[in-house]
Write a structure and sequence with these properties.
- By secondary structure, the chain is an alpha/beta fold.
- It has one domain: 3-Layer(aba) Sandwich (Rossmann fold).
- It is built from seven helices and five strands.
- A five-stranded parallel sheet has the order 3-2-1-4-5, sandwiched between helices.
- Helix 1 links the parallel strand 1 and strand 2.
- Helix 1 packs across helix 6 and helix 4 runs parallel beside helix 5.
- The chain is globular and about 55 Å long.
- It starts with a strand and ends with a helix.
Length: 184
């Protein structure tokens, strides 16, 4: 099996890579996350991943570019459906790259997050796999989430506070504001 592992960020990669390696699978990392905003957040997450990948000898491919406009164009006003759009953008990019470069399988570190919609992700990944003729390797990495976060903190890795899109950043501030108002 030749696995391309889409990676959203270094902290989420930790346990995904570790458990895959324990299975005897040596993944190649793939970064393409046009949803991440603002640019400084995008750059920080990418740089943190590049440094982490080097530290664990993980081959890493940087695909795509900062893509706020692409992401917003794809969302096209469907704010409630934005997560599926986001998953499709990233998984189609990974599946296309995998197919074009001799990978037999692809997966994603997004499957470690208890905050993501796993059924929607699985649907988007399976659609991308069928479209590009590669196999989607599904792993539910959620049981390892906390361990990966703890290890990321111990390593001093940058730890983001939201999934990455402009809308999740807005939700983060709205929750903080509501909490503050409830305390008054």
């Amino acid at each position: 099996m030749k696995l391309l592992l889409h990676i959203c960020c270094a902290p989420c990669a930790i346990m995904c890579v570790k458990t895959l390696r324990e299975e005897g699978i040596e993944p190649v990392g793939y970064w393409d996350n046009p949803n991440i905003h603002p640019y400084t957040e995008y750059r920080t997450r990418r740089q943190t991943l590049e440094e982490y990948a080097k530290s664990i000898s993980l081959p890493l491919i940087i695909g795509g570019k900062y893509g706020l406009r692409t992401f917003l164009d794809e969302v096209n006003g469907d704010y409630t459906g934005r997560c599926l759009t986001c998953y499709r953008l990233r998984f189609e990019s990974a599946a296309a790259y995998a197919a074009e470069n001799g990978f037999t399988h692809f997966s994603s570190t997004l499957f470690v997050s208890p905050y993501q919609n796993h059924e929607l992700m699985k649907q988007a990944a399976e659609e991308a796999a069928a479209k590009y003729g590669v196999t989607f390797l599904h792993r539910d990495f959620r049981p390892y989430f906390r361990e990966g976060q703890d290890e990321a903190r111990a390593l001093g890795l940058y730890m983001q506070k939201y999934c990455g899109c402009i809308f999740s950043e807005e939700e983060r501030y709205q929750k903080r504001k509501k909490k503050k108002e409830a305390q008054v």
